[in-house]
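wait is this the right file?? whatever heres the structure
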């Protein structure tokens, strides 16, 4: 797509929610911070704006979008909540959890945003700026992560600018995000299913539900009653540089993405440590920014030390595995 737009960046102090809402009302594309990653927003009721959004990201239109709303009442206007969904909404909203539910019969969200499915992904984000934008607009906002499709998700306004400058109308710069990985996605049908690990650890969700989450179904069942998260492609969240996982050594022409005490005798070309003290929450917040930074160093590969797979570590490992599959 040719670079034709002038992308303005404004700070949250500069009357940003009203500016953002005005731009969205006019069919514009606005990137804004959420607590997980920066989102690229469009008015969820405006099919033309949503078509522009798919084009700006280079995202396949079969991959549906999350509708962001301000209140549970707003969510219930577009999605049908069963008992499990209500429990999860009450426990984790606002916050980094997305629920996939059946659409209401009078759902105002465009069919383009739900890729023609009879289900819808919905979330109430916790970031105050997102809330002000949603209140000012008074309608749901669809927002995928604000990156070129398949690339590493943005955790700062500068990352959004790198990927989408010239392709979108406005960027609201609210500083770095706090969580750093996307929301956890849970499908609430007969049996709740974990469609994507994310900011809310699986263990916390299972504690609230009192049952184990079913694993994500394999592709052939995707059209069945437990829909697959269609965007969970093997390769996603990927830097341009090859990524090597579970590294117990590193070559001099590689970069090291460390976790905890770095490898003994390691002399990598570059090194960043996700969390020297081994804190998974800190590691999640640093993950995408550090992947982008090491990607810019033109090394042969990025070697990543093992990360424990519990809590938010499950989301970190999920993203790293998709990054390791490569983009092409
Ligand atoms: O934290 C987040 O969730 C961020 C912020 C901006 O809210 N958003 C985000 O959106 O990660 P995106 O588009 O990058 O990922 C949304 C995922 C995709 O994998 C998509 O396939 C899945 O949600 N999804 C959306 N609607 C769905 C549906 N009806 N059924 C199953 N999966 C769905
Ligand atoms: Mg994304």
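ok assuming it is, sequence goes like this
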């Amino acid at each position: 797509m040719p670079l034709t737009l002038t992308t303005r960046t404004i700070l949250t102090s500069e009357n940003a929610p009203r500016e953002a809402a005005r731009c969205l009302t006019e069919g514009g594309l606005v990137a804004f911070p959420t607590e997980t990653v920066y989102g690229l927003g469009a008015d969820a009721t405006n099919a033309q704006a949503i078509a522009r959004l798919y084009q700006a990201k280079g995202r396949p239109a079969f991959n549906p979008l999350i509708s962001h709303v301000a209140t549970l009442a707003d969510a219930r206007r577009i999605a049908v909540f069963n008992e499990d969904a209500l429990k999860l909404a009450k426990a984790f909203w606002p916050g980094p959890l997305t629920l996939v539910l059946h659409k209401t019969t009078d759902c105002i969200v465009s069919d383009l945003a739900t890729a023609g499915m009879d289900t819808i992904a919905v979330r109430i984000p916790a970031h105050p700026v997102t809330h002000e934008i949603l209140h000012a607009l008074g309608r749901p906002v669809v927002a995928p992560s604000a990156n070129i499709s398949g690339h590493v998700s943005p955790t700062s306004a500068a990352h959004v600018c790198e990927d989408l400058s010239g392709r979108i109308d406005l960027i609201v710069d609210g500083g770095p995000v706090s969580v750093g990985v996307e929301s956890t996605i849970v499908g609430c049908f007969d049996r709740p299913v974990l469609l994507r690990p994310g900011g809310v650890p699986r263990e916390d969700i299972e504690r609230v539900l009192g049952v184990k989450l079913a694993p994500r179904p394999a592709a052939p069942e995707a059209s069945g009653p437990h829909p697959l998260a269609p965007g969970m492609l093997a390769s996603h969240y990927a830097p341009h540089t090859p990524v090597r996982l579970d590294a117990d050594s590193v070559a001099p022409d590689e970069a090291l993405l460390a976790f905890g005490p770095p490898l003994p005798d390691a002399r990598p070309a570059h090194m960043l440590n996700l969390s020297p003290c081994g804190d998974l929450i800190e590691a999640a917040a640093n993950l995408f920014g550090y992947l982008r930074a090491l990607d810019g160093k033109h090394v042969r590969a990025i070697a990543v030390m093992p990360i424990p797979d519990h809590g938010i570590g499950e989301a970190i490992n999920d993203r790293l595995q998709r990054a390791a599959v490569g983009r092409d």
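The longest helix spans residues 280-295. so i think its the right one actually
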